[in-house]
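ok so i was messing around last nite and threw this chain in just to see what happens. nothing serious, just curious
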Amino acid sequence: MKLNRKINSVTTISTVDFEKNYFNPQKPLLIKGLANLYPAGRKWNINFIKAYCGDVKVDIFDNGKTNTSSSAFTTPDLQMNFSEYVETIIKDEPSDLRMFLFNMFKKKPGLRKDFPCPYFFKGILGKIGYMFFGSKNIKVRIHQDIDMSSVILTQFHGRKRVVLISPKYSDLLYRLPFNTYSLIDLDKPDLKKYPGLEYVEAEEYILEPGDALFMPSGYWHYITYLDGGFGVSYRKLAPGFSMKLKGLLSLAVYMPFDKMMNFLIGKKWLDWKERMAEKRANKAILKKMMEREYIPMRQKTRPAPVLNSRVHANQH
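result:
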């Protein structure tokens, strides 16, 4: 997998430029220090959030306990007071506990005044802000957001590593049917098991406190909390009809169907999904190999590549 660290980054941007150069063409963008344009950038830290939201009962997901291979995270593993949970962040020690997609603004409306939807990202979803919390070293598996919305993710405490991959590589990432995630581990890519990763290009971003990252609709993202920390995301509907439709189908059809099949046949369903993901990946690999072969033939500058034996085996 090719990792690109030469990313698009700005310190300020107008709404017109954002829509023209990034939102409409769906290109990622890092906005340095965006949070500092709002009161939250000056007052929000982990102790402030603990004091302000400490009495809220929150849903917690346990990365170490939940079987994440069979389906998407949908049911929390436990509940606790926020003040109790946030101690894991303050200690800045590894833990499997995390919070995500929590609408703290609904519980504490005053927070929205400190950090409304960024000026260039407003839309019909602009009043819904989700908070994400994680402990040091916790990882969020590679996935697409199920509703296929575009996202602006703003970091407030701690550093976060985000790897973004265009949806055009979905088959090469071994996306499971009826799901928006993959079982691959980007930290330890197994090219023997997942040879399609050789053809994938990704972008890496390190978010410092105050930074915001625009993640276009359908982009795959793999997140690592380099420190215990938290961020806030706002969403915006995809600019194109196709991605809007994919999001609707994922929410209303694919996810319910997947949950039903998991309940009915369990591991057999997961095994079938893995076989289909491999079949799609092998087809995409052959296409990429043919493209690589075709260009050198025209340019007469290099020989055609040799087919991967694993791909041959899966074509019979």
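not much to say yet. The chain has one domain: 2-255.
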